[in-house]
Give the backbone structure.
Amino acid sequence: MPRLNKDQRSLVSLTLNDEAVSGHAEPRMLLSDFLRHELGATGTHVGCEHGVCGACTVRLDGKAIRSCLTLAVQVQGRKIDTVEGLADRDGTLSPLQQAFRECFALQCGFCTPGFLMTISEFLEQYDEPSDAEIRDALSGNICRCSDYNAIVAAVKQTIRQVKSVTS
Amino acid sequence: MKPPTFDYVRAESVQEAVQTLAANGDEARVLAGGQSLMAMLNMRLLHPSVIVDIGAIDALNYVRIDGDEVEIGAAMTQAELWKRPECRQHLPLLTKALPHIGHWQTRNRGTICGSLAHADPSSELPLCLAVTEGSVVLESQSGRRVIKADDFQTGMLSTAKREDEMLIAARFPKARPGIGYGFSEFARRHGDFAIVAVAAVADGSTIRVAVGGIADRPAVLRLGDTDAMDEMLNRFAWELGGTDDIHATAKLRRNLVRTLGKKTIEDALACRG
Ligand code: FES
Ligand code: FES
């Protein structure tokens, strides 16, 4: 049972968007800050920093979580996915990102990485969600300048599109 | 904001965790899912000198049927429990209440026991534990004790748990045929703190209805039948002593106790198995 001293920066190694990476963190460092400042992955945004806005949503071992309510030292050895991992390496947007663009589901884009990471897990669990289920899943993400209806429309467009490709 | 500084211990067993608690007294805090604790740390409402992370203790990540009860270990998340067949089958009240807790992302991390230990008066899980007359299991270096819901939560964010103890499991009575369960909540936005939350358990001869969000802990009303229901709920609404604040008026709160209370009791009676 190792005890990490409050001032001690320890090595945290993890898999970020399918790549092995590592950085240093003192115990109090939030995962959101670790991603942005230690690993340079600034796609994850920080809004409220106390768990209410959802801008900082990333996926931990596949599950959408708030990175501002998780410590960097807690993700040692685990798998983190962020918005940077959604598009192909050549920059081709994922179907969900493309739908966001086509439906005007973002304006300033500050909240968007959080929405995308939440929806990406949601779509793995629900094949044909109702509008109510979509809105329920999105209740933990706040957008202050775009249009929630457009975001719901983008989710539905993604479902239609993915279905037409796979069927 | 950023949390204050603290030492961090990742406990690999309950023994390690309680040992750290015993050595550090009120300077230590247990971290499970962190959905309340981390927010409080970020807002600098707490300044522990050591955080004991129990989220990685696999032995605490379980749900098991034990006689008339369902026991849920301290590392089990709210999202995980909701997906378990044991929950659907034996815990109909939690099946109804869990989707009201926080949001998709917070349920993915937040634990059942963490919410009980945090003891927020508007939280859903303490309400469910109170109305079903469940209990919690506390462990320390000097042993283990089981405490009934009513004796556990003593007020707003306060419980009977000693500083050297940790909550290792929650026990909810298993659903039985002939008993129905209801749950309703009124909040400004889905997932926000409840302005009023109501849970009810009804069998042929007794009805228990619990209200959260008004008093400093869940309050339980017992009824023999529905004859005097409106009158009893009205009296209960006044007794709870809600006040006006930025979220709602005292009058709205009393109205919610009357209307949601009635609806929840009727829901419970209607779904008796
Ligand atoms: S920054 Fe994490 S929820 Fe707002
Ligand atoms: S697009 Fe600006 S906050 Fe959502």
